[in-house]
Design goal:
The chain has 3 domains: about 130 residues, no CATH class; about 170 residues, 2-Layer Sandwich (D-amino Acid Aminotransferase, Chain A, domain 1), CATH 3.30.470.20; about 70 residues, Dna Ligase, domain 1 (2-Layer Sandwich), CATH 3.30.1490. The chain has 16 helices and 11 strands. The strands form 2 sheets. Strands 9-8-7-6-5-10-11 form a 7-stranded antiparallel β-sheet, sandwiched between helices. The model has no long low-confidence stretch (mean pLDDT about 90).
């Protein structure tokens, strides 16, 4: 069992009496790298003050500072808009990226995707940062019950009826017989590591026909952690046409409020030719969806902030494309959310298949999708949903 699996297992069994205190402790850890509102206000007054704030942070949190610089350099290297920057401009840009993190909680990839360069403090505060998102998660979700969405095996165990495909859990030697039946039926399948995100640990696999090959593969799994093996989704032609090699998914974000489950945002993730996954790290493209109709209502955009009016490989124009059987997708996500009433914020990844809409997984991912696609901060909108889910996380209030 790796560290992530161990932590997930422990949090799943927190006693109810201690959960709120433990969630508060997690919130304090999340705020560890945020400078005080007073220091933010001083730093916002001038570039010199901002640079001094970053230097103080570097001195106090050298390891975290180095990781932020490294992430910033990766963003700068890959983004076309930052191509051929002079050394001086690159240094200033990295300083601004680090400041936007310690002041507002934005990761370097969010800095790029939200076009934060040159935005005023007031404009920055209109966006929900990754740190804000964690604050929301630990303020309104039950810290133990939400482990279902951080652990792929737990998610499948609770919501297996919505997967509508074969799957097998591999966690130890006791699972060999079920595993053997699965791989004999499915020569190609999806391997998912239990506690992983952003497409990491998801691979398309096949096992040789010999008994030795099947045994060796099984041994390699149980020696490195716990896995969920799934039958590959047979994607419906209406979504496959966008990019046949990947399973192109919908992210449907729901809030479980006092007045019932509300679908807050929907967007699509479309892969690139030859890629099995649709995640941004593999070149995936995000596209906005009118949540009421299922019609794509924006151009596509990738994690390097490159905009596409049509899919660069398939040639399908994004804006105006109608997704199939949309109301069924909405109904399914609302129904699933109602089965997890103590987890009030969930991001559902679903795909359209030959069997209709199917669940890929549930999670509590960033709000990077809707904010990147439309270049509009959604903090005020989310606060309206949170009013029905007290307490409202103080960290995302406009008055910092």
């Amino acid at each position: 069992m790796n560290k992530s699996e161990l932590i997930s297992g422990l949090r799943s069994h927190y006693p109810k009496i201690a959960r709120k205190k433990l969630a508060k402790a997690r919130l304090n850890i999340i705020k560890k790298y945020r400078i005080s509102p007073k220091d933010v206000k001083i730093a916002e007054e001038s570039e010199n003050n901002k640079e001094q704030a970053v230097r103080r942070f570097e001195k106090k949190h050298g390891k975290k500072y180095s990781s932020l610089v490294k992430a910033s350099e990766t963003v700068i290297r890959n983004a076309p808009e930052f191509k051929d920057l002079s050394a001086d401009k690159k240094e200033k840009l990295i300083c601004d990226m680090v400041f936007k993190y310690i002041a507002y909680g934005f990761q370097p990839d969010e800095y790029l995707c939200y076009d934060l360069l040159g935005k005023t403090p007031k404009q920055c505060r209109q966006f929900i940062s990754d740190t804000d998102r964690y604050s929301i998660v630990y303020s309104i979700n039950d810290i133990s019950d939400q482990q279902c969405f951080l652990n792929k095996i737990k998610c499948y165990t609770k919501f297996g009826e919505y997967y509508k495909r074969d799957a097998v859990i591999v966690s130890g030697s006791k699972d060999y017989d079920n595993y053997l039946k699965f791989v004999e039926k499915h020569s190609e399948f999806v391997q998912k590591k239990t506690c992983a995100s952003r497409g990491h640990g998801v691979e398309l696999k096949s096992v040789g026909q010999s008994s030795e090959a099947k045994q060796q593969y099984f041994n390699s799994l149980i020696s490195s952690g716990k896995y969920l093996l799934e039958e590959r989704v047979a994607q419906g032609k209406q979504t496959a046409v966008l990019n046949p090699s990947s399973v192109n998914t919908i992210r449907c974000i729901t809030f479980n409020t006092k007045h019932g489950v509300k679908v807050a945002y929907t967007f699509m993730k479309v892969g690139r030719a030859g890629s099995f996954v649709d995640n941004g790290g593999a070149g995936g493209i995000l596209v906005g969806i009118d949540k009421d109709t299922g019609v794509l209502d924006s151009n596509g955009i990738d994690e390097n902030n490159v905009v596409y009016t049509k899919h660069p490989d398939s040639g399908i124009v994004f804006k105006g494309y109608q997704l199939p059987d949309w109301q069924s997708m909405l109904d399914m996500c609302i129904e699933m959310s109602s089965k997890a009433p103590t987890v009030k914020y969930i991001g559902w990844d679903v795909a359209y298949s030959d069997s209709g809409w199917v669940l890929i997984e549930g999670n509590m991912g960033q709000f990077i999708g809707p904010q990147t696609i439309y270049k509009i901060g959604i903090k005020k909108q989310v606060q309206e949903y949170l009013k029905d889910m007290e307490p409202i996380p103080r960290i995302i209030a406009n008055k910092e």
